[in-house]
Amino acid sequence: MSGILVDTDVLIDFLRGHEAARDFVAQLPEQVFISAITVAELHVGVRNGKERNALNDFLGTLQILPLDAETAAEGGLLRRGYGSSHGVGLNDALIAATALRHKLELCTLNQKHYPMMQDVRVPYQKG
Hints:
The chain contains six helices and five strands. By secondary structure, the protein is mainly α.
């Protein structure tokens, strides 16, 4: 598989209407991937009602990659390997494992959270 896995921080900016994020998302190819972990992270901050419905509609336009046992194990190993030395949290390790397993480029604003990744794109800078 080849393509782009978009990290949660970019999607949060998009949903909040940040121009740079909207411009970036608008130019993405038709098939964009996100991790199931990102779905969980996005739901942490959503309000019920219109905001939740809008989020669910938006998520329906993306390809969500599930967290299976193999990806979960790889994420756990990445967390073990980079947690103490680089401060990598479990969610970021699981997102990295998803990108690595599916051979996807990771687009994130937090490159330092992904020291285990060689193929990381920071799509814009927050001012």
